[in-house]
Design goal:
Layout: E1 6-9, H1 15-26, E2 30-35, H2 39-51, E3 55-60, H3 66-80, E4 85-88, H4 104-129, E5 138-143, H5 147-150, H6 157-177, E6 182-189, H7 196-199, H8 205-209, H9 221-232, E7 243-246
Parallel strand pairs: 1-2, 1-4, 2-3, 4-5, 5-6, 6-7
Helix pairs in contact: 1-9, 3-4, 4-6
């Protein structure tokens, strides 16, 4: 069994998650990543990593289902025999709506996946990594959003609120496990060129909002991945409880 450091990335088959997988694998991490439904994209990414000399595998995981989360961590236990880092990247957005138009099903889905799923994954990571539990320490990076600061009025207030919860969770967990060898930080992307805008029924959102960004351009998934992978690395060894904005100044 290899002794290289092991990383689990949720929602890793496309967008920001896929770039984190690629970049981490290129830096020597053994990577497990989750995907909900796009098995073809997951298989392509696993093959790409292998052809580049890295090691990765994919596991179908819906972080809104606790049994799926448990199965993904058990798969890491079997394959790698250890866990050194977690990137909580999986998340959803919904169609543009005002708060008075949001139903219970939408709100429960948003919080179950974006908040509870991340907390359950962090729970399992801490069980494995905390020196208090016999682990060797590690790092957790949560994907938040600039929306946590901005509120997303008239569009996705529920999404913004879920990411505000992630910010608070990041700070609290970071302080809770700081003396147990685990660092916990969050990256807050701004407007990034990924498929999430189309999934929120706003494929033209980049064009509409670009002018509000001080740098006058949207970000790229690889730019977010670079921040995430830095927070996982020893170079960030004194950084915990940080909320790192990668938003072009917005």
């Amino acid at each position: 069994m290899s002794t290289g450091k092991a990383l689990l990335v949720t929602g890793g088959s496309r967008g920001i998650g896929a770039e984190v997988v690629r970049m981490a694998a290129a830096r020597g991490w053994r990577v497990a990543f989750g995907y909900v439904s796009n098995e073809v994209a997951a298989d392509v990414l696993v093959r790409e990593i292998g052809e580049a000399g890295g090691e990765a595998f994919a596991v179908r995981t819906d972080v809104g289902i606790e049994a799926d989360i448990m199965r993904s961590f058990e798969a890491v236990d079997r394959r790698f025999g250890r866990l050194d880092a977690l990137v909580n990247n999986a998340g959803v957005v919904d169609v543009k709506a005002r708060v008075e138009e949001m139903n219970l099903e939408r709100l429960e889905r948003m919080m179950r996946i974006n908040v509870i799923g991340s907390m359950l994954c962090a729970r399992e990571a801490v069980k494995r990594m905390s020196t208090r539990n016999g682990g060797s320490g590690g790092a957790i990076v949560n994907l938040s959003s600039a929306a946590a600061r901005l509120g997303s009025a008239g569009e996705y207030v529920d999404y913004a609120a879920s990411k505000g919860a992630i910010d608070t969770f990041t700070i609290g967990l970071a302080r809770e496990v700081a003396d147990e060898g685990i660092r916990v930080n969050a990256v807050r992307p701004g407007l990034i060129d990924t498929e999430i805008h189309a999934s929120g029924d706003q494929p033209d959102r980049l064009q509409r909002v670009r002018g509000q960004i001080p740098m006058k351009r949207e970000g790229r998934a690889v730019e977010i991945a670079a921040a995430v992978v830095w927070l996982l690395a020893e170079e960030a060894s004194y950084c915990t409880g940080a909320l790192l904005d990668v938003s072009g100044g917005r």
